[in-house]
Amino acid sequence: MYERSQAASVEIGGTMVVVGGTTDDSDPTAGALEIYDTETEKWILRKDLRLSQPRHSFCAVPVNETTVMVLGGWGGRGPLDSTELINLATGKQSLGKPLPEPSYGHACLVTEINGQSGVLVTGGALTGQKARFLSFKTQKWTELSKLLFRTDGHKMVLIEGVPTLFSWENILKFDGEKWYQSDQKLADSRSAFTVTSVPGHLVDTSCTWTSG
């Protein structure tokens, strides 16, 4: 429904959600949340689920089958440390555990570290090399080993259970204790993009990679 940039998209409960973002003019999308209706094949604006703090340059993850967590970003008065929990089924919204410090341009991923399920947050324009983990169970943030370089505008996905970070032409992986550089690199350097995992049988084996 809205044209926007620097928003976040989340796959949750078998559908897609787009939230937040910014436009060239003053605002109507900064706090908007839209859900894709797979039956009508149309986007539905949920006016009841507008973010309490409009933001862009943030990240969002699915906490479970119905709840989206929004973390940090750039708000009307600058960088944010706030997080929001949005239950798509009940319409309930609440504040989550704040980030350790304001951050924008970071990436986040739901994963498991040291037997705890939670959210891994990496990089950012203000927090370049930092990696932080929020345990869903304890609701405590833990500082993990630093990234190999400062990064923002990057993306993360799980590949075969391994948190994998894409930034410019670089690919970093996390082994549970430290980050290491993959032997592969992207053919073209890039920022502010999107990434997703694809089942191996769908990959064209004729594709080539640049080795680092």
List the helices and strands and how they pair.
Blueprint lengths: L7 E5 L2 E5 L13 E5 L4 E4 L13 E4 L4 E9 L2 E10 L5 E3 L11 E7 L2 E7 L8 E5 L5 E3 L11 E5 L2 E6 L2 E5 L4 E3 L2 E2 L24 E2 L1
Folded structure, characterized:
- With 212 residues, the protein is mostly beta strands.
- Helices cover 0% and strands 42% of the residues.
- The protein is built from no helices and 18 strands.
- It has strands at 8-12, 15-19, 33-37, 42-45, 59-62, 67-75, 78-87, 93-95, 107-113, 116-122, 131-135, 141-143, 155-159, 162-167, 170-174, 179-181, 184-185, 210-211.
- It has a 4-stranded antiparallel beta sheet, with no helix packed on it. A 4-stranded antiparallel beta sheet has the order 5-6-7-8, with no helix packed on it. The chain has a 4-stranded antiparallel beta sheet with strand order 9-10-11-12, with no helix packed on it.
- The termini are far apart.
- The model has no long low-confidence stretch (mean pLDDT 88).
Identify low-pLDDT runs.
Answer: none
Helix content: under 10%
Described by the principal axes of the CA atoms, the overall outline is globular
Strand tally is 18
The whole-number mean of residue pLDDT values reads: 88
The secondary-structure class comes to: mainly beta
Count of structural domains:
2
Strand order of the largest sheet: 1-2-3-4
Distance between the termini: 41 Å
Strand content: 35-45%
Cα-based radius of gyration, to the nearest Å: 17 Å
Number of helices: 0
SSE order, one letter for each helix or strand: EEEEEEEEEEEEEEEEEE
Largest sheet: 4 strands, antiparallel
